[in-house]
């Protein structure tokens, strides 16, 4: 009797060990914030957990999220290019049609507190995800069909149950995606080592010259350690916004706010890893950093909403442009693009 009781307890212990990872309590996760960064806001409605991040990572790379099972989020946001696709206007969406805007880099999104998309059309990462998921020209997914498809995968069923104590729902899918994307933190470039006085933080004379020029010429929009003010500006890329053929897609923030003062304003992108994320501007029209500097120096198109900071204060000599570009290359974070915590996992 004593032996049988011992065997029963042993079997129960083995069963518990085998299944302890299937439904653990969600464990809180604190973002690893670089020392020179501000503290990100806490998402009370979708707190970071280890399980939620792991689930979001699987979903980010899973092609089941597209209607034809051929596209994942990573198809247009590749890690080696700082989560961009290297294209101006992509045609790799479900319809094969050319998209009207370039895929933005996914960098330091935990601090993106003033809207997502180039025009701020989504308020947060959770709501943003529904756009590409359901857009006919992007992933073209029916959310009910997606839920049904994921329900056929036992690992997903277990993970959603563990994370949300519920069955799989579209709202949980985007929450998990958002949790993973908020871990895409880039703050270990040579620039960061320089400002934190760490080993490897050495600048050349040209890079130092570029830093000084950048601070006096570019910091008004590319502010702080995030290198973005998370705001919207008309940077003089266009001066005619009357073309309404694509539902105002070129009218920028005005498309969302209907405020005439927002015509042609687009969100300030971060400049972190900027050397990896060509081409540039909301439609990818500028192929390289030299073209960007030439635009600001000699190509501003003036309209009623052009940012006044760009008027009469942007001309740069060839030497100054070269120096700024040299500095911008110090913002490349090789640990970010090789971070295995962000890399493609084995999809169940």
Automatic annotation (TrEMBL):
Pathway annotation from the record: One-carbon metabolism; methylamine degradation
Function: Involved in methylamine metabolism. Essential for the maturation of the beta subunit of MADH, presumably via a step in the biosynthesis of tryptophan tryptophylquinone (TTQ), the cofactor of MADH.
The keyword Ribosomal protein appears for this protein: no
Keywords: Electron transport, Heme, Iron, Metal-binding, Oxidoreductase, Periplasm, Peroxidase, Signal, Transport
Cofactor note: Binds 2 heme groups.
Xref: InterPro entries: Cyt_c-like_dom, Cyt_c-like_dom_sf, Cytochrome_c_Peroxidase/MauG, Di-haem_cyt_c_peroxidsae, MauG/Cytc_peroxidase
Residue sites binding heme c 2 per the record: 218, 221-222
Name the UniProt record assigns to this protein: Methylamine utilization protein MauG
Protein species of origin: Chitinophaga oryziterrae
Lineage: Bacteria, Pseudomonadati, Bacteroidota, Chitinophagia, Chitinophagales
Molecular function as annotated in GO: cytochrome-c peroxidase activity; electron transfer activity; heme binding; metal ion binding
Cofactor: heme
Chain residues that bind heme c 1: 73, 76-77
Annotated ranges, domain Cytochrome c: 51-161, 205-332
Pfam families in the cross-refs: CCP_MauG
């Amino acid at each position: 009797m004593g032996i049988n009781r011992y065997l029963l307890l042993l079997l129960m212990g083995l069963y518990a060990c085998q299944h302890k990872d299937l439904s653990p309590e969600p464990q809180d996760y604190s973002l690893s914030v670089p020392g020179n960064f501000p503290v990100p806001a806490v998402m009370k409605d979708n707190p970071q957990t280890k399980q939620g991040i792991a689930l979001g990572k699987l979903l980010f790379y899973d092609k089941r999220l597209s209607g034809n099972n051929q596209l994942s989020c990573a198809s247009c946001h590749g890690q080696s290019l700082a989560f961009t696709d290297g294209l101006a206007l992509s045609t790799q969406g479900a319809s094969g049609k050319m998209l009207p805007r370039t895929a933005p880099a996914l960098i330091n999104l935990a601090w993106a507190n003033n809207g997502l998309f180039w025009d701020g059309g989504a308020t947060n990462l959770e709501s943003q995800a529904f756009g590409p998921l359901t857009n006919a020209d992007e992933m073209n997914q029916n959310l009910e069909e997606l839920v049904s498809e994921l329900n056929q995968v036992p690992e997903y069923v277990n993970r959603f149950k563990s994370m949300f104590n519920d069955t799989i729902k579209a709202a949980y899918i985007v929450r998990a995606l958002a949790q993973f994307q908020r871990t895409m933190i880039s703050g270990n470039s040579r620039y960061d080592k320089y400002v934190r006085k760490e080993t490897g933080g050495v600048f050349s004379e040209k890079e130092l010259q570029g830093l000084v020029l950048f601070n006096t010429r570019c910091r008004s929009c590319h502010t702080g350690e995030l290198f973005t003010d998370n705001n919207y500006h008309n940077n003089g890329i266009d001066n005619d916004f009357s073309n309404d053929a694509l539902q105002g897609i070129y009218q920028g923030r005005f498309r969302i706010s209907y405020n005439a003062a927002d015509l042609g304003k687009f969100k300030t992108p971060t400049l972190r890893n900027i050397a990896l994320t060509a081409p540039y501007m909301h439609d990818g029209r500028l192929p390289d950093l030299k073209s960007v500097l030439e635009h600001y120096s000699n190509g501003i198109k003036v309209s009623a909403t052009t940012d006044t900071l760009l008027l009469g204060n942007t001309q740069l000599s060839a030497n100054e442009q070269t120096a700024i570009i040299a500095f911008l290359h110090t913002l490349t974070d090789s640990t970010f693009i090789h971070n295995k915590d962000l890399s493609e996992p084995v999809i169940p």
